[in-house]
Design brief:
The complex is a heterodimer of chains A (126) and B (394). With 126 residues, chain A is of the alpha+beta class. Chain A has 5 helices and 3 strands. In chain A, helix 4 crosses helix 5. In chain B, helix 1 runs antiparallel to helix 7, helix 3 packs parallel to helix 4 and helix 8 packs parallel to helix 12. Chain B is α/β, with parallel strands linked by helices and 394 residues long. The chains are: A alpha+beta (126), B alpha/beta (394). Chains A and B meet through helix 1, strand 2, strand 3 and helix 2 of A and helix 9 and helix 13 of B. The complex binds pyridoxal-5'-phosphate (PLP) and FE2/S2 (inorganic) cluster (FES). FE2/S2 (inorganic) cluster binds next to helix 2 and helix 5 of chain A.
């Protein structure tokens, strides 16, 4: 049996929305203290819609796949929906992750949360 | 596939497979049975013991068959601890980067009141005999230092360490699992009292190994039961496995010089190739290392994704990254040589096989370069390093 599902491997091999979003208005970076992996999310929000999203990840296969899947799940969606994205939903969309790799999907959830928080604080400053 | 994970395990040699399968089929008697058919198996067993003893300059009586390297390590250390305890000696010296078969056994003894000194292995992964000498105390029962490290391949001055132990009258055990069959070993010349070996690291079968124990050392049983192995290791002997181990070891030892020459050439080529990758570093001493071992850290990337992408390119390798270990801790070996967590994360171990070609070496170098560059391309850590927001370590 392979370590990861076909879906995980697909997103790992061909990550969607990978890179930097120059005109992002919400950026969040989070790290997992335990394994040391780091994920960065760039959001471009307009009219309460996630118009565009990109990520950069320093991490394992499931961290890269989780960030890729998470971007797909929120792209084009209302901010409110993005806010409610859970790591479970990410893992499920990937047809599951090994137990000890669940924290990698948590990283994706947290990266989006951090980016949204950054977006909000920028709005308040305006 | 280019199999570059020979430190994890090796393919069985054709000769070892033949020995094993023919014995499974034709010589299935129990060596403890008195009839001819059982005695035939006994003969095979004792012949294997003799052959194996010869490869390391030991006496057949000094060879105990085990289920592998882990069991041999456990039994050697527990035996020495029990012997020491009888004389009030409850101190053991080892190193920080031993295999877990050694470290976890020592942890267990620590809970029983033994004092454990784990020597520093320095940045190059080499322990000096003087450091062992300085650590030996009145109550030292055992020194156990691995011959060659399984991750970074560094080779210790076993003869020198053994001499220090002899001089001070302390038992010396070495985990030679990665060394035997790959380096010339003579237990007498190198002052070794106990030595662990495992067949699957030199093209023999898995689940078979042996412990060399110098005459006069009283072993403590780990497994109680029948009187096999002179009562020191119960259980009907794995005759086909043991005989196949002897076949494999003989072949390996006979070819050490030839293999070393070829492997060293290819290893050095790959090391030189990978050094061209910016912000990378070889782990472990460049010269005193196994001819098959290449271990690098690449800053700004993570090892598991590196391995998965190399797998896609048909290269099977390994990493000491936290993400590849179920525990999420980076390799204790890399930490022991002073690699910090971030850097240990991006490690790659290639342990090449004797049949590797020049073209395969070129392909490995090219593939690793491509994958490292690709992963750095979307690594936020790498971005910060390049932007000068954080400092390069390598
Ligand atoms: C240095 C070292 N010691 C011990 C072992 C354990 O050997 P085995 O797998 O035969 O129990 C290994 C292999 O993983 C090893 O590399
Ligand atoms: S994020 Fe480190 S193990 Fe996946």
């Amino acid at each position: 049996m392979a370590l990861y599902s076909e879906k995980v491997m697909d997103h790992f091999r061909n990550p969607r929305n990978v890179g930097v979003l120059e005109d992002a208005n919400g950026v969040g970076t989070v790290g997992n203290a335990k394994c040391g992996d780091i994920m960065k999310m760039y959001l471009k929000i307009e009219d309460d819609i996630v118009k565009d999203v990109k990520f950069e990840t320093f991490g394992c296969g499931s961290a890269i796949a989780s960030s890729s899947m998470a971007t797909e799940l929120i792209k084009g969606k209302p901010v409110e929906e993005a806010r409610q994205l859970t790591n479970k939903a990410v893992a499920e969309a990937l047809d599951g992750l090994p137990d000890y790799k669940m924290h990698c999907s948590v990283l994706a959830q947290e990266a989006i949360e951090a980016a949204l928080k950054d977006y909000e604080s920028r709005q308040e400053e305006k | 596939m280019i199999y570059a994970d020979n430190a994890a395990t090796t393919a069985m040699s054709e000769a070892a497979i033949n020995t094993m399968t023919s014995l499974i089929r034709d010589t299935y008697g129990n060596p403890s049975s008195l009839y001819e058919f059982g005695q035939k198996a006994k003969e095979v067993l004792e012949q294997a013991r003799e052959d194996i003893a010869k490869t390391i300059g030991a006496d057949p009586k000094e060879i105990l068959f085990t289920s592998g390297g882990s069991e041999a390590d456990n039994q050697a250390i527990i035996s020495a601890a029990k012997l020491g305890e009888k004389n009030g000696k409850k101190h053991i010296i080892s190193s920080k980067f031993e295999h877990h078969a050694v470290l976890h056994t020592l942890n267990k003894l620590a809970k029983e009141g033994f004092k454990i000194t784990l020597l520093d292995v320095h940045e190059n992964g080499i322990i000096k005999p003087e450091e062992v000498a300085a650590a030996i105390r009145e109550d030292t029962a055992l020194v156990t230092i691995m011959y060659a490290n399984n991750e970074i391949g560094t080779i210790q001055d076993i003869k020198g360490i053994g001499a220090v132990c002899r001089e001070k009258g302390v038992l010396f055990h070495t985990d030679a699992v990665q060394a035997i069959g790959h380096l010339h070993i003579d237990v007498n010349e190198e002052n070794i009292d106990m030595l662990s070996a495992s067949a699957h690291k030199f093209h023999g079968p898995k689940g078979v190994g042996f412990l060399y124990f110098k005459k006069g050392i009283r072993l403590t049983n780990l497994i109680e039961g029948g009187a096999q192995e002179k009562g020191k290791r119960a259980g009907t002997e794995n005759v086909p496995g043991i005989a196949a181990m002897a076949t494999a070891l003989n072949d390996a030892v006979n070819n050490i010089d030839k293999n070393t020459e070829h492997l060293t050439k290819i290893r050095n080529k790959i090391i030189a190739g990978l050094k061209e990758i910016p912000h990378s570093a070889l782990n472990g001493d460049e010269n005193s290392r196994l001819p098959s071992n290449i271990n690098f850290c690449f800053e700004g990337i993570e090892g598991e994704s590196l391995l998965l992408l190399l797998d896609d390119k048909g290269i099977a390798a390994s990493s000491g990254s936290a993400c590849t270990s179920g525990s999420l801790d980076p390799s204790h070996v890399l930490l022991a040589i002073g690699r910090v967590h971030d850097v240990a994360h991006g490690s790659l171990r290639l342990s090449i096989g004797e049949d590797i070609t020049d073209e395969e070496a070129d392909y490995i170098i090219k593939s690793v370069k491509e994958v490292v560059e690709y992963l750095r391309g979307f690594s936020p850590v790498w971005r910060d390093l390049v932007a000068g927001k954080t400092q390069f370590i390598l």
